[in-house]
Amino acid sequence: MWRAAVRLALALALALALARAGWGALQGGGSNRTVSLLSRTALEPQEALVCTMVLVAAAETGGITDREIGVMATLVQTLPVFQHFSAEKLQHAADAAVALLREEEGLTHAGRLIRDTLEPRLRETAYTLACEVVAADRVHGQPILQMLDFVAGELRLDKLTIAAIERGTRARYQRLDRNAS
After folding, report:
1. Is residue 94 one of the residues assigned to a domain?
2. 123 and 83 in contact (C-beta within 8 Å)?
3. CB-CB contact of 115 with 156 (8 Å)
4. Is 135 a member of any domain?
5. What is the pTM of this model?
6. Which of 1, 71, 129, 177 is the S-S candidate for 136 at Cβ 3.0 to 4.6 Å?
């Protein structure tokens, strides 16, 4: 079991490190698989959840921090929704999400694919995952807040649900020292 968790963490770290370095899945091997994912009209639910996390992680600078990678890897390793989600699928989904964002209308396309793929209860899960990734860095600029707003809008979540998810995330990431960053 622990070997599978390590493989998942390594796959996510590799995919996101390559994305950070500018090596999207459209460069090098495997591009046909990514292009085929991008041309599809739907994603698998786990792919949509990974795509949501990558969207918010890349919102601020276009890159993904080590802390965000760690949070995403932990979420994929521990949450029941990712049970039976292989390292290969994880890497493929992360690469595809990065490539999708590089499309001319990539953000709009990603939002539609995520919304169309996820049933309402998993849309709440997607927003929760997005909030978890955002909370990882503890510093939130306007682009990240705008991306969270975009994600919430695309997922068609009501304001009460959004507020509850955000408050729950804030509560989990409280620090003892108010001034600690």
Report:
1. yes
2. no
3. yes
4. yes
5. 0.77
6. 71
